[in-house]
Design a protein that fits this description.
- The protein is built from ten helices and six strands.
- It is of the alpha/beta class and 229 residues long.
- The radius of gyration is 17 Å and the shape is globular.
- The chain starts with a strand and ends in an 11-residue tail after the last helix.
């Protein structure tokens, strides 16, 4: 089995790689220092693609950060991952799985993170739509919860206090093993159950996995972006 990791220098990706390899995956990574041509020329046929690309910068009031930085954040969190997927899509195997790491829950307001939340929300809708358009593969998002990596550095650099981040820091972040176990659970599910969803690792931790799968089967809108009447 072959796995492609886009953004393989992220700490979560680095934590997942040995777990994937222990389970028999051959892991090929891509990062911004890897020539783009490798994606469509040299990467192997793949069974699983994990996208670990994202940035919370710029942090601050939407009217005070530069418009260029705001637009770049949306590009990095939504447009770039899909562009990279397109470049290596020709090498996917029938029945392949694509997992995007979703980050924070963008369905609620995130003061001082408007660009990040906008990009991630657009990505979630893209995932749902692409999954519906693609019968021979399943696409889903996996929100790992707070993991204390370099992705939080822009928050600290901004000098803006994030109470939720500090509260979670006192409790500790999500262990990578939990993220991997949840990923494997998602991979074990059929496309019509998991496809197009945004699964939080906390959903998997706090619920019986068999019961959660039943709920997903019964509710085609669960863990998707929907208007609440």
């Amino acid at each position: 089995m072959n796995c492609i990791i886009l953004g393989d220098r992220s700490e979560i990706a680095q934590g997942l790689k040995p777990l994937l390899e222990a389970d028999g995956y051959h892991v090929t990574g891509w990062n911004r220092d890897t020539p783009r041509k490798y994606l469509n020329r040299y990467f192997p046929q793949w069974d699983l693609l994990i996208c670990a690309i994202g940035s919370v910068a710029p942090v601050g009031h939407w009217s005070e950060v530069t418009s260029e930085a705001w637009a770049e954040s949306v590009r990095v969190n939504c447009i770039l991952p899909i562009q990279l997927l397109r470049e290596c899509w020709h090498n996917h195997k029938p029945g392949a799985s694509v997992c995007f790491l979703a980050g924070a829950n963008p369905t609620r307001a995130g003061p001082n993170y408007s660009a990040y939340y906008t990009g991630k929300m657009a990505l979630l809708k893209a995932i749902e739509t692409i999954d519906a358009e693609t019968p021979d593969a399943k696409f889903f998002a996996l929100a790992p919860g707070i993991v204390f990596t370099k992705i939080h550095q822009p928050t600290y650099d901004s000098g803006i206090l994030n109470p939720g981040l500090e509260e979670r820091k006192a409790k500790g972040g999500t262990p990578v093993q939990f993220i991997y176990n949840c990923l494997n659970w998602c991979l074990s599910l059929e496309k019509d159950i998991i496809g197009g969803r945004n699964i939080c690792v906390s959903d998997w931790i706090n619920n019986d996995s068999k019961e959660l799968a039943v709920h997903l089967m019964d509710d085609s809108s669960m863990f998707k972006l929907r208007r609440v009447e």
